[in-house]
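Recall that a protein's primary structure is simply its ordered list of amino acids. Everything else, from secondary elements to tertiary packing, is in principle encoded there. The following example makes that idea concrete.
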Amino acid sequence: MPGQYRFSFGPWNLHEGADPFGPPVRPTREFTEKLDIAVRLGFQGIQFHDDDVVPADLPAGQLERGVRQVKQMLDDQGLAAEFIAPRLWEDPRTADGPVTSNRADERQYALDRSKRAVDIARIIGTRDIVWWPAREGTYIRESKDARASFQRMLDYANALLEYDPEIRILGEMKPNEPMDLMYMPTTGHFLSLCYRTVDPTRAGVLIESAHCVLAGLDPSDEMAFALWHGKLWSVHLNDQNGLKFDQDKTFGTVDLRRAFNQVNVLERANYGQNGEWVGLDVKAMRTQPFDLAWKHLQNSKEIFSQLVEVSRRIDRQEWQDFVDRRDYEGLELFILRNLMGLR
């Protein structure tokens, strides 16, 4: 396939297999081994949380040196950093939502740590800051003033945009988990915030397939909506078996037709021509042995590439003929035959 697409994943996608009901089942891989796997599988980029690069408690005076060491490791492997995402949801101070917390000192912690993430991004060579507002919501509606919370989210985004005039903020929306009731749970919600920031040209979205499914929405439609706005700046492709917890399954393994529609939307929009990444956020099954706990990445990338080929070779005129005749039953079988390799 043409070199239009660049692929990335995060170090957390090569994980130990722990879940809320059980401990790790695989050894921890060294970061250098994860980079080796990325190169071997044909990936070009690595996604980072801030503390994937350097420890969150690393003294400020040691920050630049630590980040430059990681950047050199990337450079040595011919890899790039796609984005930095401040991990705001694991610290005890963020239990009630860092940005929308009712406590001013906790909101300040979130802002300070996020500015530090911007510093990391600047050094490691990316302008993209991904904001997953994981705990920006409530366990009960009455615990927060929703209007005030929306304003605090806008104030936070503005503070980061003003802190560095080069960065972009990419909102990664999710309707639930870990909070029960999330603020701005969908792409459309975050896009409305983008247009109210101090610089709407530097505010956009990263869309994750599973998060859309959890919201009862079709990922391809969400991607098309963001593309229509010119604000789909990255994706996290994976799959999801219904309205459950966030499963991060291998892309296309639950619903191949849904996966095709995502690929087809990206392909038809020339996604990637401006440097956008095809990011994966997939996790190996807990049952997968250590020496094979990378196949979820390989398989996701292969399925994406194969679906690109389907999108490129499919007979668009025949497709349009079904549409013109309003023969949607015929169109459905036409699509499925192409996906089954029968055309």
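The longest strand covers residues 80-85. The domain at 6-314 is CATH 3.20.20.150 (TIM Barrel).
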